[in-house]
Amino acid sequence: MTNLVRMLFVAIFAVGIAGGAAAGEKVKPLVFQTEDKVAIKGYDPVAYFVEGTPTKGDPAFSSEYEGATWQFANAANRDLFAADPAKYAPAYGGWCAYGMAQGGKVPIDPTAWKIVDGTLYLNVNKKIQGWWEADIPGFIQEANANWAGFSHTQ
Question: Are 70 and 95 in contact (CB under 8 A)?
């Protein structure tokens, strides 16, 4: 990835982040969620670990955590999550891992994912995921520092 492309990515999302705040839009919640407060677009966070694939959840199997409704493919996954949500919830509240490394809360595509050292990371799309995979340890370090700096109301 060239520096120009990276700078363009950062600029596009910085404008979106700053523009939203300047226009008086709602602050971004801790967890990436739809307008109806469903986390990670309704995908089952446990399925990434148990089934090894993104799986759409069912509203009949849901659980509340961190101000969002999480949906699961079945009761067993819901119960695993309820017993230890921090184990299964994606890093950075489900916001894009690469976006967080760049300093912002960026939406995700639940099919652009990777589990690294027992943590689920999501990205905005598969192309950006490829960029993120070019330096996973470095981007995780940057994202962790940025995430720690958020008030989680930004």
Answer: no
Assigned token pair, 133: 């995979």
Residue from 136, 122, 143 nearest 54 by CA: 122
The rounded radius of gyration (Å) of the Cα atoms in the chain is: 15
Polymer length of the chain: 154
Question: Which among 122, 133, 126 has a CA at the least distance from the CA of 100?
Answer: 122
Q: Which residue has the tokens 């994912």?
A: 113
pTM of the model: 0.84
The token duo for 77 is: 């996954």
CB 73 within 8 A of CB 55: yes
Q: Is 121 helix (H, G, I), strand (E, B) or coil?
A: strand
User: What does pLDDT average to in each consecutive run of 10 residues of the chain (154 residues)?
Assistant: 53 45 59 94 98 98 96 98 97 97 95 98 97 97 92 55
Helix (H) or strand (E) holding 150: none
Phi and psi, residue 68, nearest 5°: -135, 160
Distance CA 64, CA 68 (A): 6
